[in-house]
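Quick question, first post here. What does this chain look like in 3D?
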Amino acid sequence: MKKIIILVFGLIWSTTTIAQKYNAADKLYRNFAYLEAAKLYKEALKSSDSTAYLLTRIGDCYYKNSDSKQANFWYSKAAYKYANFNPKFAYKYIQTLRSVGNDDAAEVWLDRFKNYEPLDSLVINSKYTKVKSTSEANPLLKLLNLNANTEFSDFGGYEDASGTFYFSSAVSTDILADQKKDGIYDWNEEPYLKIYQASVSKSYEAATGSDQQEIASDSIN
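> Answer (accepted):
Ran it through. Tokens below.
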């Protein structure tokens, strides 16, 4: 009898712990702290059955961070484990298959999802054609790196009339190591962006740019 009571209390404690992790992870997810949420979902996964909800929610955490490889891994687990895999994840799953270069599987799953139930027209009418690289498809277009380019994703570029080019980029990883938690985005655990400037000159044949500098504005950077 004593062993049964201990077992019952153990099951109750385990169930309560899992529920707490679910609730905490869901709260983080709603607050856009996707990578933190993914960690808790994975902890819950170790202690409970891998439900379709749990697998696809982990996939969503990575999908919302543009991590196609990890998102595809978790969506695949749900898609292959559950015959009634919710078609609302069809578009995202197919997109991750394409992103990781598995075009044939993307077409197979597109046809399979069509048989489940009517899907969004974006998925039903999705006809994917693999195109050549930009350099092959349009030889008149030349892509060049400038000295101003950083090792990160640079975007939001704007060039003013004087030839000064402004763009956003992430902070150096060396700086990131010294930053406090309040200098990191919760949703992807990446450092806050900064605005840089560089002088750019260009012609039809070439383009050159000076090394980037942070703009001199404490109120922005």
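Strands lie at 155-159, 164-170, 193-202, 207-209, 213-214.
The two ends are 66 Å apart (CA to CA).
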